[in-house]
């Protein structure tokens, strides 16, 4: 049985990490991360992962049984039941940091699996365990958000034609700038993940 690579990565210590000289990454995922807010606080995220065509191909061929270019509800349910071993593991790939310290997030909910052309998409929500007040963020406090694989087997890329990290409804005075997180490199310290740095007025 195949398992989705993001979930298998949690088991890499059991099968041996790839040597540093090995080619990385092996899978590409385009990120769309929407920040959800309520009463001036960040409460969670709506996230879409769009997988590259090569990685998507065997799942598309196996589960799009009627070859209509989409996963019907029964096909998507079969894919999820057969391939995804732990919904909770998705949260390991969501990074929220306040003042550089990682903030815990809740468990994935409302997962849907679809197709965008030849690319498989996961769309889901991840709540914060505790809302983060946004007033003054970027002045006295830093806040960064992102979704990526810390082992760098998968490269998380941001789309070139639209903001990949954005607010569902931007609070007044809040902006997001895409930066490289140079304080928290991944893959033996050789890669700086892209994250959204949030700034909000007092």
Automatic annotation (TrEMBL):
Highest taxon, organism lineage: Bacteria
Keyword set, alphabetical order: Signal
Keyword Signal applies: yes
Pfam families attached to this UniProt entry: DUF1007
Signal peptide feature range: 1-23
UniProt-listed InterPro entries: DUF1007
Protein name as it appears in the record: ABC transporter substrate-binding protein
């Amino acid at each position: 049985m195949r398992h989705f690579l993001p979930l298998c990565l949690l088991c890499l210590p059991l099968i041996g990490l790839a040597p540093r000289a090995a080619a990385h990454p092996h899978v590409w995922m385009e990120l769309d991360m929407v920040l959800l807010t309520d009463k001036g606080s960040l409460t969670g995220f709506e996230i879409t992962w769009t997988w590259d065509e090569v990685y998507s191909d065997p799942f598309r061929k196996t589960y799009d049984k009627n070859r209509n270019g989409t996963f019907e509800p029964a096909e998507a349910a079969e894919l999820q039941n057969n391939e995804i071993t732990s919904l909770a593991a998705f949260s390991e790939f969501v990074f929220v940091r306040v003042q550089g310290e990682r903030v815990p997030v809740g468990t994935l909910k409302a997962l849907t699996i679809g197709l965008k052309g030849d690319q498989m998409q996961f769309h889901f929500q991840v709540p914060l365990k505790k809302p983060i007040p946004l007033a003054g963020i970027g002045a006295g406090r830093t806040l960064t958000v992102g979704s990526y694989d810390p082992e760098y087997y998968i490269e998380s890329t941001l789309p070139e034609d639209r903001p990949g990290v954005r607010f569902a409804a931007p609070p007044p005075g809040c902006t997001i700038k895409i930066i490289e997180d140079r304080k928290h490199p991944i893959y033996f310290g050789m890669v700086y993940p892209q994250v959204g740095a949030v700034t909000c007025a007092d």
